[in-house]
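Could someone model pyridoxal-5'-phosphate with this protein?
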Amino acid sequence: MSQPGAAPGQGRADAAVDWARVRSDFPLLRREVNGKPLVYFDSANTGQKPAAVIEAVDGFYRRHNANVSRAVHTLGGEATELYEDARRKLARFINVRPDELVLCSGTTFAINLVAYSWALPRLKAGDAILLTRMEHHANIVPWQLVAQRTGARIEVVELLPDGSLDLDMLRVKMTAGVKLLAIAHVSNVLGTVNPVREICHEARKRGIVTVVDGSQALPHRPVDVAAIGCDFYAFTGHKMCGPTGTGALWARREHLEAMPPFIGGGEMIREVRFDGTVFNDAPRKFEAGTPNIAGFAGLGAAVDYLEALGMDNVETREQELLAHLDEELAKVEGLRVYGTAPGKAAVVSFLVEGAHAHDLATLLDIEGVAIRSGQHCAHPLLQWFGIGATCRASLAFYNTHEEIEAFVAALRKVRGLLG
Ligand SMILES: Cc1ncc(COP(=O)(O)O)c(C=O)c1O
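Reply:
Sure, complex below.
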């Protein structure tokens, strides 16, 4: 494994991290796009991968490829070990027990698992599901499907003008009928970091089950799920330096035991007879079929990588980059940022007067700059702002101050072309 440019440890932020060396761990960041050095500012969409992760996936297929939990041969044992090792590493990374972690394809699957297996059998007409205005579609649509089938209703907590959650409204809306609160830890559009620990504590006092969408938190800050005190925590591997098609759902043991399987098939059973099937214990009973074994070998390596870097270091680095980006963008005339909550993550959604978001993003691509434009899988949030699309620049620790300057220079140039 190539070593990131930092001493191992999850400890305090370490000013001595060699960020240039860290960046050199990411082969893709060396490429050019349209003859220009790539500036990749789309990490909220998917993160880039260090060589260690790419090598772990490659190494799995070159040396260990076999199915998990089925074969007694050596390769089968190695593949199973790599898969289970990823579970243990992820559990340690977020401070939970490995047997409470269901490995799956990502946040979307994880939230659907809670929706179909926990909520669908329990909710009924008159119950409410509480969401926030800033949720990603993956944390809206599954609940709408549950609501349609159970007669439960969806309630929405709105935002304050800076894009932070209206916590007073949240408290008022936590009424007796509310059975479940589903909330993003960090918004993928605004960068708002929700005080999930306090919120989950309040919800628990009122008997409300909490589902936290950690997709945009885990890649960017230390996360202690046990300390948050939620019931479910969902996340995705590809945003945290891991391969696509990987992720997990953490759930309290009592929920996992009470929940019926969501998808049936091999691996999730102990015995199958035509007169009845005995399911495996959780978390296996939720992991039917052949998983993305190579992907989890890669995700295990991603956790090693991030731990060696230190998530405090990652957070500090990204906050420094964000401060620089904010400063540079403030100098661009006619630019409006959507989401300015204090302590926000390094995600900046913006519009420039007189320019359509897609036009800006397309012209920036010609300059080698990759940002996202559109609705960011958050239609209700953009409806609240009364706009059709934004540009979104989202940073990661492997970005540089020089890239921020190149991005803002390119933005000025293309804005000039759009008149
Ligand atoms: C906040 C948030 N939730 C959920 C998702 C969905 O993740 P995935 O597509 O990996 O399942 C994303 C991805 O953009 C996200 O940003």
